Amino acid sequence: MTDEPLLRGSALSKFYGSRVGCENVSFDLWPGEVLAVVGESGSGKTTLLNCLSTRLLPSSGTASYRMRDGQFRELYRMSEAERRFLMRTDWGFVHQNPADGLRMTVSAGANVGERLMAVGDRHYGKIRATAVDWLSRVEIDEDRIDDEPRAFSGGMRQRLQIARNLVTGPRLVFMDEPTGGLDVSVQARLLDLLRGLVTDLGLAAIVVTHDLAVARLLSQRMMVMKDGHVVESGLTDRVLDDPRAPYTQLLVSSILQV
Amino acid sequence: MTDIATYNFAYLDEQTKRMIRRAILKGIAIPGYQVPFASREMPMPYGWGTGGVQVTASIIGPDDVLKVIDQGADDTTNAVSIRAFFKKVAKVAVTTETAKASIIQTRHRVPEHPLTAGQVLVYQVPIPEPLRFLEPRETETRKMHALEEYGLMHVKLYEDIARHGRIATTYAYPVKVEGRYVMDPSPTPKFDNPKMHRSPALQLFGAGREKRIYAVPPFTDVVSLDFEDHPFEVQTFDQPCALCAAENVYLDEVILDDHGGHMFVCSDTDHCEKRRADGHRGHLAPETHLASEKMEPAQ
């Protein structure tokens, strides 16, 4: 691991009028590290994720990202063209609802190939070969390559969305409730797949989830949010096994046992 | 009509023409960029060439010679009506000969006869946005043009190859103008795309309903999008024109009877007539011009 973080957020705040989205959030994310942001709904975790991925501009605070050349760039000072380029090359964004992140009316192969074509790939055979490779890595049969995602199950759509995001070899992936809305067995396989991919590719990821089990499986570190503030952060195992903040203790003790 | 004063010259008022000319100039300055303009009500329905008519009305002068074609033909309703319209409101000379015209308003064809410097080709455009069917949001497509994000256009071509084994788009085939803007060449057959490349004539595109004008100045690069392993190619026909035996031209299929008889003839009627006048004969050409009832259907 290098001695410099990949993404650095400092004093990020987002207000919706007089309401607080998130307030004064600071953290460092290191290369290859998975950071989970947990909390109940309305706690500001998605607002934070949207600010970091530049889908929203924060009211105050800064975030800087270490580009491939090793230089830190302040995200909110970059031009829109640069941000969008970063978004489709070095970053990925996995939405909770796959329909938001996929083009539902074009084939699975084209969904995976779109990012390649967006960065200038103009060889059909190579694009298709890459698409086939990625579909197999996310456990989608090769003969489904020309089917539209509309014909896919929820779990397949989510896996396709992941393939579409990872095809350009990003270094940082944002995930918003990646396993939300999936039944438990599908969820387990998806988590398994994600864990494998994150380790194999050395991805850094920020995973927003309300599911502490997902956080425990995927992440090394976690931040617990409540009412827009970070109430506790630390190593995932430490936070879950020895919660210090009262709210975290409540959250951990609320997990249903079977 | 005794006097042209019943209408302003070329129907539109001078302020409107000024506004449209401004849009045209901006379009010429930024080849392929869609310039918004305040499209006016014209005495014809949208979809019949209101954009093209407004562009023509704004650039036409008393000395111009106008030709109007509809799918290559000078003698179909749309072409005849627009020609008559300008004859009435601008009292300009009209022609069907490509070489003699100074302004050619066209619906979906580029004439076969090569265009020359000084000629203006005015296209009627139904949907100017090449990304429209891939991205329905106008705010988003404008941003994609601004940031030159054209990956999506290739997604469409990818889909074509995945489904049909080749690029199956045959008309409104997307082009890149001067290495910058991706443009819809209006629903011309892709056969005509190479004619737009470095054409000596000025090409203007008017979309009345969508309120957009764009332009390709003379000698501008117009390159059809493709893949390295699936290069752009134009349609080919296995037989020549049945009337004038022309090859390497765009042909229309004409149904002759209800027993499956059909023939392929030039879509450009002016080109076909010229060739026949020069003595070229296709295999279905009548012996004389009056003997057309003797025509036999092709097999």
From TrEMBL, chain A:
InterPro entries: AAA+_ATPase, ABC_transporter-like_ATP-bd, ABC_transporter-like_CS, P-loop_NTPase, PhnK. Keywords: ATP-binding, Lyase, Nucleotide-binding. Gene3D superfamilies: P-loop containing nucleotide triphosphate hydrolases (3.40.50.300). Residues 7-252 form the ABC transporter domain. SMART domains: AAA. Belongs to the ABC transporter superfamily. This is Phosphonate C-P lyase system protein PhnK. GO terms for biological process: organic phosphonate catabolic process. The keyword Lyase applies. One of its GO terms (molecular function) is ATP binding.
Automatic annotation (TrEMBL), chain B:
GO terms for biological process: organic phosphonate catabolic process. It comes from the Bacteria. Its EC number is 4.7.1.1. InterPro entries: PhnJ (IPR010306). GO terms for molecular function: 4 iron, 4 sulfur cluster binding; alpha-D-ribose 1-methylphosphonate 5-phosphate C-P-lyase activity; metal ion binding. It catalyses: alpha-D-ribose 1-methylphosphonate 5-phosphate + AH2 + S-adenosyl-L-methionine = alpha-D-ribose 1,2-cyclic phosphate 5-phosphate + methane + 5'-deoxyadenosine + L-methionine + A + H(+). Keywords: 4Fe-4S, Iron, Iron-sulfur, Lyase, Metal-binding, S-adenosyl-L-methionine. Residues 277-299 are annotated as: Disordered. It is an enzyme of class 4 (lyase). Catalyzes the breakage of the C-P bond in alpha-D-ribose 1-methylphosphonate 5-phosphate (PRPn) forming alpha-D-ribose. Belongs to the PhnJ family. This is Alpha-D-ribose 1-methylphosphonate 5-phosphate C-P lyase. The lineage of its organism: Bacteria, Pseudomonadati, Pseudomonadota, Alphaproteobacteria, Hyphomicrobiales.
